Amino acid sequence: MTGHPASSAADTFPKLLERNAGQFSERVASREKEFGIWQSWTWAQVHAEVKSIAAGLKQLGLKPEDRVAIVGANRPHFYWSIISIQMCGAVPVPIYADSAAEEMSFVFDHCGARFAIVEDQEQVDKLLQVASEIPALEHIIYLDPRGLRNYDHTAMHDLADVQELGRKHWSDVEGEIARTIAAQKGSDTCVMLYTSGTTGRPKGVVLSNDNILVTARSASEFEKLTEREETLAYLPLAWVGDFIFSMGQAYTCGFCVSCPESTDTVLEDLREIGPTYYFAPPRVFENLLTTVTIRMEDAGPTKRWLFRTFIDHAKRVGEDILDGRSVGFLDRIKYSLGEMFIYGPLKNVLGLSRVRVAYTAGEAIGPELFRFYRSIGLNLKQLYGQTEASVFITIQPDGEVYADTVGVPSPGVELRIAENGEVLYRSPGVFQEYYKNTDSTADTKTPEGWVHTGDAGFIDPKTGHLRIIDRAKDVGKLADGSMFAPKYVENKLKFFANIKEAVVFGEGRDFATAFINIDLNAVGNWAERNNIAYTSYQELAGHPQVYAQILSHVNEVNRSVAQDPMLSGCQIKRFLVLHKELDADDGELTRTMKVRRRIVDEKYADLIAALFEGKSEIYTETEVTYEDGRKGKIKANLQIADAQTFPRAQASDQQAA
Higher confidence at residue 625 or residue 178? Predict the structure, then answer.
């Protein structure tokens, strides 16, 4: 059987698992690389593993409606545990594994988790550190026992022991679990996922089985996904993107999900798996391109010449060939040679040779970055989504892929643009509520089911596709009344391998300015090749030659921005290279690596003021959090550079209106 996601009769994950165990019993459902060796489980074996975990949890006292937190990297046992929890009528609550103890404390206390299933000693230690703040927690179950032998195991359990307990007592709970599964409906709660919290405390988004599974089926049918797909689960377990791809679509279609050995081996594991279906936020594509750029800088002159020659050709005709448009015979021959010598080997190195459909989402991707991947033959498409939508709001159809839009409404989705330019949507994936937060629920979701995205955008009159400008709260005006959209400029800056992060300022001001974070890998590699010694990020970031490189990138971005009639006022007049990387542990980024602008505005108010006051340098002290949780301060004298700006393009009468 191919091409047919699960029928609507299987309206919960436990029911889908039973269906897959029967229909795809011998097909591989899960893979995990451990100690350099891939281990595999068929759907029938996964079903047996899930049942043993469910029975073990019942023996420990898990009750319907209980909340169970899951904290760890992408591991098959965690995905299985999600289904096991649902089999017991309880609700899984995945939590970001890199959360600090205090962040975890808030989520545990807010959701009232009685059980926690965690990865290892590190996560156990975090929970024990804040145990007094989460009194509802009764049981901690761990996957990796290393380092935990001498801990008090009164309320701690090895997951392997829980499974063994479940196998011994399966007959005692089999009937109860079967009745629970049979009674469950699509409208029941499936999972609770916490938002990244860009503007405050994370909110618990309650999603039903219908929200996840109806959306997953529709999107799978749109892309003609089948049980033959292969995908790699490497993005945070607590992120809705991973949940919809590694759980929702994997279970509705019946395809295999592989888990990497560690975050350090993702690229190697990606090459070995060769996924056919791939999803990554822009930052991952940025990092991959940075890796390629570094390797090419280290290559010999002939190889560098070949790379640049064929990449330039791909940028000219590659997208047309990918989309099936007319391209001259000689151009096709040259592109075929490029595929043989450059594009094919490059995609193979990146692990993308077999990809049939690739998505990027989470935040806007720079047009240059997007076009680069499509030009070498990767069917990369943008989608626009939110946790509150079960991911999918818009999606780009094949043959209608544009760098500056995010597609048409996904199947079953309605779109509306409010008078203030905010994008609203209504769909089967719309969340049920924010847990214990009726005010925020009412502010976000109207009684008619329309959801306020918080993003500003419009429907492109030429293509009918949605174009997102920026977060609605971030879009403003410069002092002269021209539009200010910082994300638009930030994405252009991050196309350059030397720039990891950028934050642009200018609301209500006479001009725009920016903070720049250099990419330590890319700039460090350049420094080594040029015999430039440095001892820290701070020293390298302040080097005059680094500033000169960043200045050239800013000038190039300004030249591009000047050509956009709507946003030409967003050219950066002054900038500085920050003395530290923006960090989630310091509160400057979310756990999904989005900038917390309010925190940055408050924390670096002195630097922002210096940019607009015309100073050429400023002394600053910044508090930082070290890996062991200690606090410290970084002191620096930062240089402020002036960039070149260009004449603005004139808006047409229609655009001005």
Answer: 178
